[in-house]
Amino acid sequence: MKPLSGISVRRTRGYYRFWTAFFFVMVFVLLGGLYYATKQVDYVWRWYRVPQYFYYQDEIEITSADSGTIAGVEEVRGRTVVTVRGPGFEEAYELPAKAEPRMSEGDLVFPGDVLGSYEEWKPGLLLQGLWITLKVSFLAIVVGIVIGLFAGLARLSENPALKWSAMTYIELIRGSPLLVQIFIWYFVFGTLVNQLLAANGLTQVPPLWFGVASLATFAGAYIAEIVRAGIQSIHRGQIEAARSLGMSAPQCMRHVVLPQAIKRILPPLAGQFISLVKDSSLLGLIAIRELTKATREIITVSLQPFEFWFVCAILYLVLTFALSMLLQWMERRMVY
C-alpha cells in the first residue's frame, strides 16, 4: 500500500506531465544560471584536469645513496642489478623488471643520481580521501551501533547506576557541538593517551582513531535515543504475554521486543548514518586527510575550486545514496 493512499486526491495525467516538465525546466534554469554566473566572473572550467586526481601514473626513481662508479649492470632472474663501487664499499641496487636503467658501466654517480626508473599507476588524492572517509565512517558506524545499543538498553534499565550513566552520557554528548568534541578527543584525550604511551615506550595512537572515537561516541548518543524509542514503541501487552509464557526478561527482549524494534528503528538509523558520513568532513581539522581535506589540498594546488567542490559533493552524494539504498533494502527484507 502506498503512503497516504487513503487521503491522496486523484490527479489527471496532464497534472503530472505539467509538474514533471516544471521540475526539469527549474533544474535547467538553475544550471543555466550557474553557468551564466561563472561566465560573468571570467572563470575557465577545466574538467579535463579532474581525472588525474583519481588515478595517475607516477614515475618511480631508484637513486644512489653514495658516490662512486658503476661497477656493473647485469640481469639476474629477470631483474636488473646495478652495482656501485666506491672507496672501501660496494652496493648493489636491484631494479624491478619493468625499470629502465639510466646508467652504464663505468659511469660516475653521486648521492641522489637516478640509477633507474619505472612508471606505476597510483590512486590520486580524491581516491585516497574517499577511502579514508569510507574507513572512518564504517568504523564509527559499527562502534556507534554498539555504544548506542548498550546505552539505549541502559537508559531503560531499572538499575539507577546504569540508567543515570546512560542519561549523563546522552545529555553530555547531545549538549555540545561535534566540532568541540573532536577537538577534545584530539587535543586533550589524544595528548594524554599518547604521552602516557610514549612514557612507557609504547607506540602512539594515530589521529585517525581519535577521529573515529569522537564520531562513534557522538553517533552513539543519538542511536541510544533511537533504540530507546524503538523499544518503547512495542506494546506492553506483548511483553506481558511473553512473560506469562515463562520467558525471562532477557529472552523476552531478544525474541519478542528487539526483532520488532529493529524494524522500526532502521529508518531513523539511516538518517543518523548519513549524517555521520557527512560529519566526517570535520575530521580534516585534526589533520586527517578525508575527502574534504583532500579536496582543499587539490584546490590549493590546481586553483580550480568550482570543479573540485562539485566533484567532492557528488562523491558524498554517491556514498550517502548507496548507504540509504542499502538500509532501505535491509528494511524491505525485514518487513517481508
UniProtKB/TrEMBL annotation:
Pfam family, one: BPD_transp_1
Claim: Transmembrane helix is one of the keywords in the record: yes
One record GO biological process: amino acid transport
ABC transmembrane type-1 domain segment(s): 130-327
GO function terms (MF aspect): transmembrane transporter activity
Listed PANTHER family: GLUTAMINE TRANSPORT SYSTEM PERMEASE PROTEIN GLNP, MEMBRANE COMPONENT OF AMINO ACID ABC TRANSPORTER
Protein name from the UniProt record: Putative glutamine transport system permease protein GlnP
UniProt KW keywords: Amino-acid transport, Cell membrane, Membrane, Transmembrane, Transmembrane helix, Transport
Annotated source species: Oceanidesulfovibrio indonesiensis
